[in-house]
Write a structure and sequence with these properties.
With 249 residues, this protein is α+β, with helices and mostly antiparallel strands. It contains seven helices and twelve strands. A hairpin with a 2-residue loop joins strand 10 and strand 11. Helix 3 runs antiparallel to helix 4.
Length: 249
């Protein structure tokens, strides 16, 4: 086994998937004559509430990625503006899954057997045997983990989030909550956006379907603290110790 370089390659492979809420939105419009707020007003307030949130939970289900091993099929991520996060990711086509916990400048990551095999062809089994069912622990000061500082920072997501829609298309209920259903388009793909009826108007879901795209993104837990629990020492191994194990195993 290549020891240090292989372990770091496996860690770094997790970082190419810096999650983001997918594009879901288009241009603004005016009130639709039903007495409900216009699309422009709803989108503007939902965007403001997204940008002002100190913490959020973001979810993603991408059905078009399910057949691709390197595609991100699903994500569930709680993160805040201080850079803390707890997240789970699942790859398509049996590409495996992995979890991340970041608290301050410390990072823990754990991938399953399928993920190591798909990301490190020829060496994945050996790496999985070495890591076993443990989190790999490190600091954002280490090169292998430094990119987590951005991947888990809500502020980075908020810079690019927009909520622009073309029309209000009535009301419905999602998860027991009354929401407005709004229509839009992004790069030719029809988009449906759901924003709460009650104020503060908040984006709760965005669906994109058409032209080879089938994706649902969710937003929840506005302002709810990111769970502070971190993996116990018995369930984790420092990156440097893991490298030592690989060289002396």
């Amino acid at each position: 086994m290549a020891g240090r370089s292989l372990i770091r390659a496996g860690v770094s492979a997790l970082l190419v998937l810096s999650p983001a809420l997918p594009p879901a939105l288009a241009t603004a419009a005016t009130a639709d004559g039903t007495g409900d707020p216009g699309a422009q007003a709803l989108g503007r307030e939902a965007e403001r509430n997204l940008r002002d949130a100190h913490s959020l939970r973001l979810t993603l289900t991408d059905r078009t990625a399910s057949g691709h091993r390197d595609g991100l099929a699903s994500m569930d991520m709680a993160l805040d503006r201080r850079g803390n996060c707890v997240a789970s990711f699942r790859m398509g086509a049996n590409g495996g899954s992995f979890d991340i916990v970041k608290r301050d400048d410390e990072v823990w990551m754990k991938a399953d057997w399928d993920y190591w095999k798909s990301q490190l062809p020829g060496d994945g089994n050996e790496t999985a045997d070495l890591v076993r069912d443990r989190y790999v622990h490190g600091s954002t000061d280490e090169s292998a983990f430094k990119d987590f500082a951005d991947a888990c920072d809500l502020k980075a997501f908020q810079k690019d989030i927009t909520v622009d829609v073309t029309s209000v298309d009535g009301r419905t209920r999602l998860g027991g909550v009354d929401v407005y259903r709004l229509r839009g388009e992004e790069e030719g793909v029809p988009t449906t956006v759901y924003i709460t009826v009650d104020r503060p108007h908040r984006l709760v879901r965005s669906d994109q379907k058409g032209d080879g795209t089938d994706r649902t993104a969710g937003v929840s837990d506005y302002g709810k603290p990111v769970p502070s629990h971190t993996p116990a020492p018995r369930d984790s191994v420092d990156l440097s110790d893991l490298e030592h194990e690989s060289q002396h195993g």
